[in-house]
Amino acid sequence: FRKYAYFILLVIAALITPPDVLSHMTVTLPLFLLYEVSIWISRIADRKREKREMEYQREESNRDAGAINGE
Fold this sequence. Notes:
This protein is mostly helical.
């Protein structure tokens, strides 16, 4: 999927820059960096969300076990 995103970023950079390679690369590189940073941030956020969900499920199972045992 990432290679398609890179291709789309190259096309976007080509559309918004004048027809010279230096300008094209000057726009393309920050787009690539922003794309990669956004993937990195979303992975971190997803891991934190999964961790919170696991903790919540663990607490729920502990409460359920306590209710069954009469605590």
